[in-house]
Amino acid sequence: MKTITILYAFRNRDTHRVKLSLQSLQKQTVQGFEVVFVDYGSDNEFSTPVKKMVERFDFASYHYISHPGLLWNKSKALNYGIRQAKCDSILINDVDVILHPKAMELFQSVSAPKRFSLFKIGYLPQSISLNEVATKPYEELTPTHTGDTFGIGLFPKAALEAVHGLDEFFHFYGSEDEDLIARL
Predict the structure, then answer these.
(1) Are the C-beta atoms of residues 44 and 78 closer than 8 Å to each other?
(2) Hey, is 30 helix, strand or coil?
(3) Backbone dihedral angles phi then psi of residue 6, each to the nearest 5 degrees
(4) CB atoms within 10 A of CB 177
(5) At what angle do helices 44-54 and 15-26 cross, to 10 degrees?
(6) I need a labelling partner for 85 at 20 to 30 A (CA). Which of 29, 54, 116, 159 fits?
(7) Contacts for 41-48 with beta carbons within 8 Å, 24 or more apart?
(8) Distance (Å, rounded) from C-alpha 90 to C-alpha 35?
(9) Distance CA 61, CA 84 (A)
(10) Across the chain, how many H-helices and E-strands are there?
(11) Rg (CA), the chain
(12) pLDDT of 179 strictly over 90
């Protein structure tokens, strides 16, 4: 039984980063998840190869939503993904995050109907190449620093629905995450 929906919002990023993140999900010691991948208006040079790559992962579904002529809006994309989610818990994850092989164990253990969790992210040095990230064992990837971020958040779907998701007033990247946390 799937217990967590992992939600990615994506726009105009390179395919290799997305592939590394999804491959880190393949390596999880506990599966029991689905991925809802929402592309919110990438140019064709990004959307076409990413769509093909995402569809290679049997746990993932690709959704393209675009609003030509309007400012792009990550909040709309995440709200769309929340509506598509089939699980009671939603993990909002950035497309360039590589998860530890036991991350899903942790997420499932802290998932609760009346609690949300935010997780720290370790940042790799700029000098490390994506090929090195792909070939090194996870334990050998040494971050330069860690930080509080909204890059990974685990939420009850019912709570996200109760506060009507992310405020779509926010455009580009901004305070949509802080606003959501304050309302929750």
Answers:
(1) no
(2) coil
(3) -100, 125
(4) 20
(5) 20
(6) 29
(7) 41/11, 41/65, 41/66, 41/67, 41/68, 41/72, 42/10, 42/11, 42/12, 42/13, 43/12, 46/11, 46/12, 46/13, 46/14, 46/15
(8) 10
(9) 10
(10) 7, 8
(11) 16
(12) no
CB 55 within 8 A of CB 152: no
117-118, strands of its sheet edge to edge: 60-64, 33-39, 4-10, 89-93, 152-156, 117-118
* Predicted local confidence at residue 167, as pLDDT: 78
Alpha-carbon span 5 to 23, nearest angstrom: 16
Match 């370790």 to its residue by tokens: 122
Rounded to an integer, what distance in angstroms lies between the CA atom of residue 97 and that of residue 83?
23
Let me know how long the chain is.
184
DSSP bridge pairs for 115: 112
The Cα–Cα gap between 75 and 98 comes to: 22
Helix (H, G, I), strand (E, B) or coil at 61: strand
Residue 175, pLDDT above cutoff 80 = no
At 68 the three-state DSSP class reads coil
The single-letter code of the amino acid at 174 is G
